Amino acid sequence: MSDEEAEILDRLFNPKTHGEVRVEKDERNNQLIVNWYDEGFSSYSHMNMETRNEIYSAQTFLRLHKDFVVLADRSKTLEQENEYLKNQLALFKHKEFGASSEQFTSPPIEVGNATNDSVEVSISAADLANHDKKPRLVSSNAGRKPLPAHLPRERVEYKLPPEKQVCECCAGKLHEFGEEMTERLTVIPAQYKVIQHVRQKYVCRNCDKFTVAEGSKSLIPGSSYSSPEFLADVAVKRYQFGLPYYRQETIFNHAGLPFNRTTLANLMIGCVDKLQPLYALLKSELRNQDIIHADETSFQVLKETNRLPQSNSYAWMYCSAANANKPVVIFEYQATRSGSHPVKFLTGDHNNRFEGYLLTDGYSGYNNIAGVTRVGCMAHVRRKFDEALKILPIGTENSHAHQAMRLIGSLYAIERKISDQPPEVRYKIRQAESLPILHEMKQWLDKLYPDVLPKSLLGKAINYALSQWHYVSKYVEDGRLAIDNNIAEREIKAFVIGRKNWLFADSTDGAEANTVMYSLVQTAIANGIEPYKYLCHVFEHMPYMRNSKDVESLLPWNVRFAENENLRIAA
Question: Quick one: three-class SS letters along 327-360?
Fold first, then answer.
């Protein structure tokens, strides 16, 4: 700025004033009026534009004022970006060094200037005094518990030899009067054996006609590895316990079995080809229910048509409500995250359309499903405010994030109180107690929203809550509905944990096998049935099913136990 420009500003503008500036032209009196406003103070200055110098001064001031407005807007934008980046850095530090729990019971961690190499930790005098003491694990239920009663027992007795059954004091004969027993848990390693299925052949010596005795049918005809027990063992290791094929390959090789991962993958694909009727029945049963929870997660499929191996494919998950009489969990493989997939799954079959409540997160792909009432997830709203809470300095107690967490906590306290009540009672209590809290929270969010930075974590939390409010508040309309979608997140967690182990699917057939097998395993668990025993039962009886009516007998709630066979998960 030149000295001449500075002089013009000094004459027209109070340098101590940092408030709003307004410039107006008075055409009638040929004047430039400069007004500035600050807190509790206002002033103005007139500039006549009758001489050339006065006109030049006015033009210079207008140009400088325009530059000032641009710089002020840019400064405000930079302040907002700086605040956003500071929030993101604090959140990333908390995720790296702090606790991941969302419990609203303790103040957030103070990460300060911690780096990847060191974290500053305060140690009390008591900690220093006890630093050499060996830490001891404390059980949540004190006291040693007996070994499970359903395990078989094998008795090993210890007796004195005859020559030692003599009293050391008086040389009298010793007599048994009781026993002292200690139980020790042992393990029998997995054993593999070959069962030879021998079908006797018969011939008529009069007409030379041959007959062969009928043997048991196999789920995968012609395969030496198609026994129900072996197939169920491979499936459960992968889809219940997350053991990828290459680790199973190592286990089998150590046992002297020359398996490779490709063989194991092809076995599961072969099983799924035969299990499609059962999979279709499970989907049909789920669509017949009144409430469905849904979620989706990504994974990689290396060999998809016209797609790069690095592309994200998706496993869509649909499951029954927590109180369903016939719990079903369905995973479905799709190449994209398009909203057309839930539309097709839920309403694509005109003879079996879902028309009920759909509980989901905030993903917009669930919005436009005809005949479906969408319900939101309060846990996702809570999670956004929890992130805003975690970046606050330690000791902060009365922030807006705290207020939001307290209001949401009140809603969850009501849910815990009525969790064991019938739907009719839950509905009445929600209308009387939860609804007023929801109204209070909505009014508070509407009032607060204009005053927060939209890119800050608090601003994002408030914006998410308001954009989803129509959905997250709908749970009070029906006592059967849950306040959140946590049941779906719990069910899809099995797939997420497995994905961290097996990393990807090689082909679309493998991806389809993953989703179908996860559906059977998680549905069995949801019905309280041991997945290994259930899959053994399905693999053994599926070859004999002739129509869909027969296949219905393999649904978890229709399974008939054999004598002395218990398919239930051990308590």
Answer: CCEEEEEECCCCCHHHHHHHHCCCCCCCCCEEEC
- Please state, in angstroms and rounded to a whole number, the distance separating the CA atoms of residues 113 and 289: 53
Question: What crossing angle do the helices spanning 457-467 and 435-448 adopt, rounded to 10°?
Answer: 130
Of 536, 505, 510, 516, give the one whose Cα is nearest residue 266.
Answer: 510
Q: Which of 63, 86, 109 is the last residue of a domain?
A: 86
Q: Residues 229-282: pLDDT tens digits? A: 999 999 999 999 999 999 999 999 998 998 899 999 999 999 999 999 999 999
The count of structural domains within the chain is 2
* SS3 assignment, position 62: helix
Pick the more confident residue, 86 or 457: 457
Within 10 angstroms of residue 516's Cβ, the number of other Cβ atoms is: 25
Instruction: Judge contact between 231 and 275, C-beta under 8 A.
Output: no
In this structure, the strands spanning 373-375 and 312-320 are: unpaired
Per DSSP, 554 falls in state G
pTM exceeds cut of 0.70: yes
Q: Are 185 and 147 in contact (CB under 8 A)?
A: yes
Q: Is 267 left (phi over 0), alpha (psi -120 to 50) or beta?
A: alpha
CA–CA–CA angle 231, 490, 534 (5° rounding): 25
**Residue 565 domain-assigned (yes or no):** no
Q: Is residue 117 part of a domain?
A: no
Distance CA 314, CA 297 (A): 6
In whole angstroms, how large is the CA radius of gyration of the chain? 36
3-state helix, strand, coil in the chain (%, to 5): 45, 10, 40
Q: Which of 228, 377, 386, 223 is nearest to 295 (CA)?
A: 377
- Does 331 map to a domain? yes
The contacts of residue 230 (CB under 8 Å, 6+ apart) are none
pLDDT tens for each residue of 390-446: 877 777 778 899 999 999 999 999 999 999 999 999 999 999 999 999 999 999 999
E-strand ranges in 371-434 read 373-375
Where in the sequence is the domain holding 376, given as residue range(s)? 277-506
The whole-angstrom separation of Cα 108 and Cα 388 is: 10
Alpha carbon distance 522, 500 (integer Å): 18
21, β-bridge pairs:
36
Q: In 46-135, where does DSSP find H-type helix?
A: 52-97, 125-129
Distance CA(214)–CA(199), nearest Å, equals 7
CA neighbor of 378 nearest in space, from 294, 473, 491: 473
Domain end position, chosen among 53, 86, 119: 86
Locus of tokens 């101590």: 16
Contacts of 470 (CB under 8 A, 6+ apart): 376
Cα angle value 319/325/327 (rounded, 5°): 25
